[in-house]
Amino acid sequence: MTDFEFWSPTYFAFGKGKETCTGELVRRFGGHKALLHYGGESAVRSGLIGRVKESLSSADVEFVELGGVKPNPRSSLVEEGVRLALGNKVDFVLAVGGGSVIDSSKAIAIGAANGGEWRKFYVGREVKVRPAIPAALSVGVVLTIAAAGSEASTNSVVNLEPENLKRAAGGNILRPKFAVMNPELTTTLPPFQTACGLADMFAHICERYFTPTKDVELTDALCEALMRTIVSEGAKVMANPDDYQARASIMWAGTLAHNDLCGVGRVQDWASHGIEHELSALYDCAHGAGLAVVMPAWMTYVHKSDTARFARFARNVFGVGLGVSDEDAALEGIAAFRAWLKSLGLPLTFAELGAKKEDIPILVKTLNLNGNTLGGIMPLNEADVEAIYNLCNA
Amino acid sequence: MTDFEFWSPTYFAFGKGKETCTGELVRRFGGHKALLHYGGESAVRSGLIGRVKESLSSADVEFVELGGVKPNPRSSLVEEGVRLALGNKVDFVLAVGGGSVIDSSKAIAIGAANGGEWRKFYVGREVKVRPAIPAALSVGVVLTIAAAGSEASTNSVVNLEPENLKRAAGGNILRPKFAVMNPELTTTLPPFQTACGLADMFAHICERYFTPTKDVELTDALCEALMRTIVSEGAKVMANPDDYQARASIMWAGTLAHNDLCGVGRVQDWASHGIEHELSALYDCAHGAGLAVVMPAWMTYVHKSDTARFARFARNVFGVGLGVSDEDAALEGIAAFRAWLKSLGLPLTFAELGAKKEDIPILVKTLNLNGNTLGGIMPLNEADVEAIYNLCNA
Q1: Model ipTM value
Q2: Using one digit for the tens of pLDDT, what is the confidence trace for B116-126?
Q3: Is residue B167 located within the same domain as residue B199?
Q4: Which of A59, A313, B34, B122 has CB atoms 3.0–4.6 Å from B167's, for a disulfide?
Q5: Are residue B131 and residue B205 in the same domain, yes or no?
């Protein structure tokens, strides 16, 4: 176990109808005038935005609103949000949505607190040191999909236009002040979105679980417990979208998968996320779908760097690879992981994702390794990344 | 899963030598003048108190000090601390020690922020609703034993004199602002104290795991992962007190066992803690030792109220009870739990603890149920509690 700092101060209000507490929570965490940020019209049509507005008004929180966040949130809307926030002197950003809305809100929160400057903090992949963010408005969340974990994470990922680069900012300053989590809000999601969320939260644990750090027994055990739960409860929500209890398990799992409870005391990997972000930037595919393609390919490519760990993954998460060699167990585990992703209806290849082999040089180039390496369990150079993209195409 | 609120805002600085950051952390969380509160002379002799004072001075944090906290912390010292805090206008209470020091510090923090009043908030057992604490000074912790979890919990337990009643206060307001956790500080603990700590943290999970709430699969899995780790890593620290990695696992486990990560979304029990507190109040025994006597007796008495859950405990935590009926598995699990406690060198009976059968009526009386019941998985009346004390004596 390495030394670590851990701080997860987000207040969670979890359960049915909790969105009616939103206004009170904005006040409790110092907000008086909020930018209400959300995605498509479905949140309006469902009545959720109306209930949130009512809650804000009841708590005497003024607000301006900006909808229209798309998956892989765009920098142009962030710019609009920053102008709106500065022009209206808001002191709080309230995200009603999933990871894209929250990440866009975090970017606006940075820009509004730094005289409009936010883009310079989105400079690298998760594994690189970024400039410290000096200030940010407080962010609160009403979560509508169990997936990205951004409701408690230190991170924000935005698609920077016009270059079309998906880049991340990070720091404890970006942890939301509160997250309202009502599992009922997720029961109407299309199955494909639910599945993408499951892949994303599972990947967030893998990025931490596959580590070169030794002696992290406790967090290893927590990671495995979370991954097993995502698999078992995920099967329930796919079979029965209205299963409130399974939805609740998955929603809380998505948060714990990325508030770094599973990452403390260890070197983390994040190569798969770096490799995937180029896919969702270029093809505008769902991040979780991209991860379903990249993660098994990455596992196949790197597993020999720590065969015993991949064997443990197979045995403790998927219950396969018992009574065989570590190498065979590792391969059985990767196969079980692919089979699980397939059972969710997710793409597993470039062709199924809509990606093209001939774009691989572009993907490698925009990843912009610049002679650096990517990942923790096996540091990857450009040739390694190219090989992994080729495995995705297989 | 029930609806829940969860807020664990404590900042953790974990690793070797982290106590040198103490002063900086007091400043970061708003402290300018601290009451430095600690236990016996060992912390002074070891040089720890000296290093902490140096860190405070380097960060321009003034301080007054009050040592002398004993296990089962006494109200008289709390009173002295409150007078000292008010007289010196401190704005922060810094606990350097384990659960008793932290709990005493929390009581002082309440008293200092409420014109000397603190005792009225210590009115009941953990399971009962207590008056809300309107204010408390900020508390920070330098932890020296992996045990009570008070470094991140909402609770404080104090021995109220002269009645000699062990009573608790609680609320998010009592969560420490930061906890400095250096596993090296725990390597010199006497084996019996290490063992008591292991029993205490394991019990904190049991109090949550044994619940009448259904569909808490995720937190069940997290509870089991933590309990298995405490057993496996606990064996390592008992065999080799200098095993830094195992000490680190245990230290972090003690925190996660009681910051309520394992308790969200479920009715909790806490009967064993209530029953034990009367023992440590009357005999001044170590809380963990008292729990080692009470918990297996409690399990034996209540297991039929949910045999399937006790069977799951046996199978998923101790790996026993496979291929037999749930009833047999439950009994095998309780036996495995007792065997584990015995392997730690902990007492298992009244005689080994130094308690007396003839005191049982006193214990039941001071528990003061007043017609109410105790516990969640099986609500216990006075007769039940008496029966459990008698099982402890068996």
Answers
A1: 0.96
A2: 999 999 976 54
A3: no
A4: B122
A5: no
CB atoms near residue B162 (< 10 Å): 7
Q: What is the length of chain A?
A: 394
Answer yes or no: is B253 within a domain: yes
Task: Verify whether the Cβ–Cβ distance B12 to A5 is below 8 Å.
Answer: yes
- Burial class of residue B279 in the structure, from the number of CB atoms within 10 Å of its CB (0-12 exposed, 13-18 middle, 19+ buried): buried
CATH number at residue B236: 1.20.1090.10
Alpha helices (runs of H) in A11-74, residue ranges in sequence order? 22-28, 42-45, 48-58
B2 occurs within a structural domain:
no
**Which residues pair with residue B11 across a beta bridge?**
B178
Is residue A4, in this structure, part of any structural domain at all?
A: no
Which residues, given as ranges, of chain B have pLDDT below 70? 124-129
B113-163: pLDDT as tens digits: 999 999 999 976 544 567 899 999 999 999 999 999 999 999 999 999 998
B326 is a domain residue = yes
Say if residue B66 is in the same domain as residue B204.
Answer: no
Asked which of A118, A150, A184 is the last residue of a domain, the reply is A184
**Which chain A residues have a beta carbon less than 8 Å from that of B2?**
15
> Is the Cβ pair B261, A261 closer than 8 Å?
yes
Q: What confidence tens digit (pLDDT) does each residue in B226-247 have?
A: 999 999 999 999 999 999 999 9
- In chain B, the percentage of residues whose pLDDT exceeds 90 is 94
Tokens 């991340």 belong to residue: A168
Contact A226 B222 (CB under 8 A): yes
Q: What is the number of structural domains in chain B?
A: 2
Q: Which of B184, B217, B237 finishes a domain?
A: B184
Band of the pLDDT at A126, cuts 50, 70, 90? very low
> A75-87 and A99-113 are packed helices; what angle lies between their axes, rounded to 10 degrees?
50
Domain range enclosing A66: 11-184
